[in-house]
Amino acid sequence: MRVLMPVTVADARMATPRVRVLTLRHARRDRLPPFQGGAHTLLTLPDGTKRAYSIASDPAREEAWDIAVLREGHGSSILHELPVGSRLYATHPQAGFGAAAGAARHVMVAGGIGLTPFLSMLPPLIRAGADATLHLCAREEGSAPLVAETRVLLGERLVTWFGDARRRLDLAALLAGHEPGTHAYCCGPQRMLEAFRAATAHWPDEAIHTETFLGLAPERATSGEAFSVRLARSGVTLDVPANRSLLDVLREAGVAPEASCEGGACGTCTVPVLAGRVVHRDLCLSGPKRARMMTTCVSRGEGELILDL
Q: Which pTM does this prediction carry?
């Protein structure tokens, strides 16, 4: 169980007609917990809904966090209408997406709201004098949040690709060759991520980093071949039918991890796997992490899995 802390919405502003930026402060302390660039927090909204959001501010700014909320569903609508002064509950920072330590060069690609995790990843890299370039794609400049702030931060290291200016990023050309020490990152819509993965198919797995905000559709997330899981700590075996997710079954048994998107995008519901063959269907885990973890909301097993639960 993740520790929750009370936070207050200290400020709010519209960055675009559909993106609201909220500034969060700890409700009882002067500082928020430290975090690494690319981290996210899981917010508990007033109606109990849980949503994961990237921390979109400099890690050196200890007194407040910014999050950017794209209005597109129930949880985001709540945050768009929430008045300044409201209280929420947030987890301590959750690592997942982040800059690779020791990389010689960072090539970053963002689509629209996918810019947000890079806004916390880039300031430490800039201060360290790292070789980092961000390619930002959007339909038009007015639909991309926080562009002005990003230009101030990066200068010429920000390359924009706006559809209304007839500029389209060629990912295959950008990522055609891999040089040792170069890492590539992408956060954006599913179509962009698919193109990014295709363009980097010849890159080493450890040099590729992705994050997304949209997962599988509910009907696909909860369907597949039946399998079973054995919980190593209790010895209990649970059957997962073809029309239910592992997360649902774990909830029924009272041992489910926390969850947010329930579409394999955020990684909140991951659990350690001790043995067995996992059918990974998530959009968030890297190759090394897939060797030892699985998302319970969308991924499944072949035969029996043994989980560290």
A: 0.78
